[in-house]
Design brief:
Layout lengths: L4 E5 L3 H12 L4 E4 L13 H7 L3 E2 L11 E5 L4 E2 L5 E2 L1 H8 L7 E4 L15 E2 L9 H6 L3 E6 L8 H9 L2 E6 H29 L5 H15 L16 H14 L5 H19 L18
Parallel strand pairs: 1-2, 1-4, 2-3, 4-7, 7-8, 9-10
Antiparallel strand pairs: 5-6, 8-9
Helix pairs in contact: 6-7, 6-8, 6-9, 8-9
Length: 293
């Protein structure tokens, strides 16, 4: 069976990780982006730098269209400080594919309620960390395949990734979104809890205190992900996804006081970082050691 032709829409951190992973797996990969993003993964890995040369940039999203084309949409959402999610960039990207003959796979982070407004075939939320995103696409910790309809065709590359995944599930698109947010909110909650508990042990926090706190925490948590005392959670995903899901849940009348408190606690910890700039930066690994973020 001939391999599918892949077109990645949106060539940021997630789009590039997917493109490089699929190029590594031998798929012909093209990409389209309205901007001129830097090559994020080329600097630290020679293989990644070589793989960039194998990617073809398109001038139009449908330039390589065909029945065997798979479009992977990796356009980011926008979330303001109040937690309002703006999916207009994702909607525009999907609108540009309305005449596509191939399969559309959505990898953007979208709240469950917003998915009904979008036209795609498969929702494949990503669970990658920036520092190891390419490897985590090739060998995923979680593979969640959300089918828009019962007869949505699953591309062959997803089947390949499923065989390598540590944990996988096939479900509806809405449930796939809930799983995505559950993962990120759980990680945010763990970070906020560990930092708050660590500060309850000892302040002011000097290097000796940090070591003592880590000893206490590691007795219970060991090397579990997101269990290191240090900086607050930040980056591109955890803050915005926690804000968006919390705001959306509150608008529906749900009691999510724990999630709201996670944001409050993390914000307070940011102020501690100003007072104690030596608080360690850290990153976590998946239980199988495949990646970090």
């Amino acid at each position: 069976m001939p391999r599918e032709s892949i077109v990645v829409i949106g060539f940021g951190w997630v789009g590039q990780a997917n493109a490089l992973a699929l190029a590594r797996d031998g798929y012909p990969v093209s990409f389209y982006d309205v901007g001129a993003p830097a090559e994020h993964y080329a600097e630290h890995h020679k293989e990644h730098a070589d793989l960039y040369r194998a990617l073809r940039r398109l001038n139009d999203p449908l330039e390589a269209d065909g029945p065997g084309t798979v479009y992977i949409v990796c356009v980011g959402d926008r979330v303001d400080e109040e937690g309002n999610q703006d999916i207009a960039p994702i909607q525009r990207a999907l609108a540009s594919l309305k005449d596509a003959r191939g399969t559309v796979v959505l990898r953007s982070t979208v709240l469950p309620a917003h998915l009904t407004r979008l036209d795609f075939d498969i929702y494949l939320p990503e669970f990658v960390h920036k520092r190891a995103a390419v490897n985590e696409c090739v060998n995923p910790q979680y593979l969640v395949v959300g089918k828009k309809t019962a007869d949505s065709r699953i591309p062959s590359f997803i089947e390949t990734w499923r065989q390598r995944s540590v944990k996988h599930i096939e479900c509806g698109a809405e449930d796939a979104s809930y799983i995505k947010y559950l993962s990120n909110l759980w990680n945010a909650l763990r970070i906020a809890f560990v930092n708050e508990f660590g500060c309850s042990i000892e302040e002011p926090v000097d290097q000796k205190a940090v070591a003592r706190i880590d000893t206490i925490l590691s007795f219970i948590f060991g090397d579990a992900p997101y269990s290191r005392y240090g900086r607050s959670f930040g980056g591109n995903c955890l803050p915005k996804d926690t804000r968006a899901y919390t705001r959306w849940s509150e608008e529906r009348g749900r009691d999510v006081s724990l999630l709201r408190s996670t944001l409050i606690s993390n914000e307070a910890h940011k102020h501690r970082e100003e007072k104690y700039p030596h608080l360690p930066e850290w990153f976590s690994t998946w239980p199988n050691g495949a990646g970090s973020g």
